[in-house]
Amino acid sequence: MKKVPEGLTQFLLVEVKKMRAQRKEHLLKEHQLQAKNQAMEQEQARLEQRLQELLKVQERCQRLREEWDSNSVELLRLKDENYMMAMRYAQLCEEKNMAVLRSRDLQLAVDQLKCKVTSLEEECSLLRKQAAVVPQREAEERGHPDTVSELWAENQRLMASLQELQGTLQAPGEVPVPGSEQILLDILEHDWKEAQDDRQDLCQKLNSLQSELQWAEELRDKYLQEVEDLQLKYRTLQKDCDLYKHRMNTVLLQLEEIEKERDQAIQSRDGVQLQYSQSLIEKDQYRKRVRTLEEERDELLSKLSQAEGLNSTLEAQLQRCRGNRSLGKEVTPDSEKDINRLSTFPFPPCIGSILRRQREERCMPYKSLSCGSFSSMEDATGSGFASISLGAFSSSSSGTYARVKSEICLSTLPSRQEVTRRSLVVQLSSMGPTSNLSPQEKSLGADISILGGNRTGIFVQWVKPGSQVEKAGLKEGCRLIELRVPSLKEEVLSLENCTREVAYLSLLHWDEPSSLVFQLDLQGYQPLREALEEGKKFSGDSFYVRTNLPLLESSDPYALCVKCREILHVTDTMHKGRLEWYCSRVDPLTMRDLDKGTVPNYSRAHQLLKIQEKSNLPGQQKSHRNNLKKRALDQLRLVKSKPQKSSGQPPQQLWLDPCSDPDRSLKPYSLVRPVVVQTPRPVVLSPNCIAPRLIRNLLDLPTSRLDFHVCPAEKLAEEHPSTAHAQEPPVSKSGPQEWKESGQIRMIREAMEKNKHCLLELGVQSVRDLIKREIYPIVIHIEVTEKNVRGLRNLLGKPGQRDTEMLKMCRGAEQALHALPCSWARVEPHAWSHAEELPKVVRGCIFQEQTRPLWVEDGDD
């Protein structure tokens, strides 16, 4: 038998004694931990009781919210009914006005007929008077012919006497007449001639008098007729005046009635406006109360999670102490010989020991992975602001590594005209032992400290006196622009608009003073310096992200408890010098910052997301090989971005990206930006199986034709066949003219110009293409459950489809919505009770989403 070395035996005996001493210490610690455990259990019971109370409050809040939603739906229904009644009232008023006008016309016709009857009566009376006057005229006319006949008889008598005298004169002519008789005959003849002349004069006078009499009678008749006409006109005008007076009185009465109705309408409108303002005030109060309760619930949940984390840590320590005590119990004086005998054989550590060590390392708080040492600026600026010193990572005997991954997007800077967007992913790991990578020896980042961010730019705050950096011309107030890394074959890494975290990690590769491009910018550095001197909290970073996993840091009391799909406003990527983000929870409706706190950076969140994904997989074994593989996948390299084929694209940029990472598709954060659209946006309804019938029912609502325009899939397929296929790849931005000529975009833009919402029947697959063309649709998903699936049978295109198949299809459509690059709305099941009410709810949701901002993933539009 080979002799055992004496030194090894002595070493093992010493180790056994040390283990016994440690066992006693562990027993003491065990008692202390048991006491702490009891106290923590009591605290846990108290927190659980508080949690139950908060759950009750949450249920009550949910009931109040459901009541408020139902009241909102009822209010919309009442508004629709009120609108219909108002339309009916307007129609009745119009019919009433038409009837009044018709009655006025009939009254006017009656008055005109009365005037006509009166005029006819007047004419009859005048005719009667004329009939009475005619016999008198005939009698007078008869009297005149008597005189004429008398004159005619006298004339005949005179003619007869004249003839007798002529006869007597002719007879004596044969017989001589004596002289006295001749004289008498001459006198008689002379008298007869004079009488004949007088008679002729009288006849002429008589004729002239008859003509004057006839002319006077004609004038009299004419004047009488004119008098009758004037009397008729007078009576007609008097009747017209009376009629117009009556009409004016009627119009005045109607105006008084209209004024009364107007006053009543104004009073009712004021009452409705007062009720609406009161409902808005109550709604704001309920919202504030709900937010307060949610904040209290989140605070208590964070406390409970911290207590659970501390309890789990204490339980792990207790388990370790029990394991050590059981191991110490096995080392008894009776078995010392066996120990001495077995100590001669070099046994490797067991699998349980390796797994326990890995669990202990995993349970270590993330705050221990500090990004480096930080120097104070009290000597330079006189303030207590802790600046970032780009120094070395703290090393241990076993060799630690730092791994940081950050994904940012450059937001729009107000002081610049151009809008630049750049996505930068940084991930670093130790490429070997600590002795091989010494930032104090190779990196020049330890000689400077920086501040700023993607909003203000990266500025130098402090430079080490007498260093190579100072000799190269770098001083306080210089803006960092580019970094040329020699290991990347003179590739350029832009630092002009990156975050402070990215700049810090990029400067770790800075080993030559000439590889850094900078310029003096005191005007941009002055606001940062003034903020530091005044002690104000000034951040240079500003961008929005959407979380894709719930975050609950149990080891940090200042951590922000974040749910999935919440919007965060990141304002500091290196809070207090650590590689963690300081952000604010954003209200997605008002874009206001709410409660603030810290969240893990991209790297830590990516690790948590991968852990959640692996924990969700059933039957997956976590062995030390998986952990070793995970560490091996953390190896990173600097890669070059793909060349841009289009001449209009920006020049090539350098990306820092993980290599050979199978989980790179998992994104804990998605970079988003708010978009506010004033014009009516197109509408996409989900699920697709009920969208066509729902669009028809939505158009059947009153006044829906004025607000909506349907865009059927068949018409789109005829005009632009490529848009009808969901599997066709999206059109690249290199050919926007081809997309502009498509029928889909043309119809959508025409509807937007007409101030109408375009109802699309294309499904959610085309949303990404629409966003790339700067058309931001409203996506509304109707949640279908087992309770309300039967109420949607009349909206299905296939009547014989089973409920299970429809539920599976609707859930698949909801899962597809999570991959959209924009926010979408949901119609809850309790918001509607039957299929006839669903179009009204969807219509209200469309109008509500039109006024809200849309959160779009940056890089997808």
UniProtKB/TrEMBL annotation:
Family matches, as InterPro entries: P-loop_NTPase, PDZ_sf
Keyword Coiled coil listed: yes
Protein known as: Caspase recruitment domain family member 10
Region listing for Disordered, in residue ranges: 640-659, 719-740
A cellular-component GO term for this protein: cytoplasm
Lineage start: Eukaryota, Metazoa, Chordata, Craniata, Vertebrata
Keyword list, A-Z: Coiled coil
Bias type Low complexity, positions: 644-653
PANTHER family: CASPASE RECRUITMENT DOMAIN FAMILY, CASPASE RECRUITMENT DOMAIN-CONTAINING PROTEIN 10
Residue ranges of the TM segments: none
MF (Gene Ontology): CARD domain binding
Keyword Oxidoreductase: no
Species the sequence originates in: Anas platyrhynchos
Coiled-coil region: 23-67, 103-130, 192-324
